[in-house]
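S.,

Sequence below, as promised.
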Amino acid sequence: MIIRKFSILFLLLLLKHFALAQEIRSSLVYKIDLTKKLSSEIEFGARNETINKSSQQYYFALVDVKQELTKAIKLAGDFRLGKANQNETMIQFDEDYSIYRYGFQTIISPQTKNSEYQWSYRLRFQNSYESDNKHQETIRHRIQANRDYNKYFEPYISLEAYFNLEKNEFKKLRFKIGTEIKFDSFDFEVFILTDNTIKTEHYLNYQQSQAFGIKLLL
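The prediction came back faster than expected:
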């Protein structure tokens, strides 16, 4: 009964967010197990963002490598190459529209017994280069909670803070909720997220953007 109510609520939330979303994200992910503790993911994706009746399309390819040190700690590195179809009236908001980006991250997932939730903390450094040769160095802190209801359905919720190293201040908060839907030969991930800029000395205007996304994981 609880699962059914949560599923209905989550579906309604997805439909509402899809109607309001300024950005639609979709991607295809291939996962490769290189060794027992070393894996890689190759992702091809597209995004369409609409602001003030202007739109921009962004296409990217990403390669990610993860090393499991222990059951609770993973290290990862990634590289992303992207291309944006610019619109003269379109305003770019952040590093997501860079030409290329690389990053390194540590994921800590404490092993908790007799708990319905799996908590994790991700510390990520990323360097983004845009088409005008500008770059941004960012530290991202993310806390996430997953709950494995059954072998088919695993919802999650996360909060992430972006810290700009050049300005030495937090610039954005990201709230994300989604779920993995698991099948025998592939998985789906569906999510919604909201980005909120933090008003500071360097970011004077408060901005909020919403996105709806879906991933096919092979």
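The radius of gyration is 18 Å.

Coffee later?
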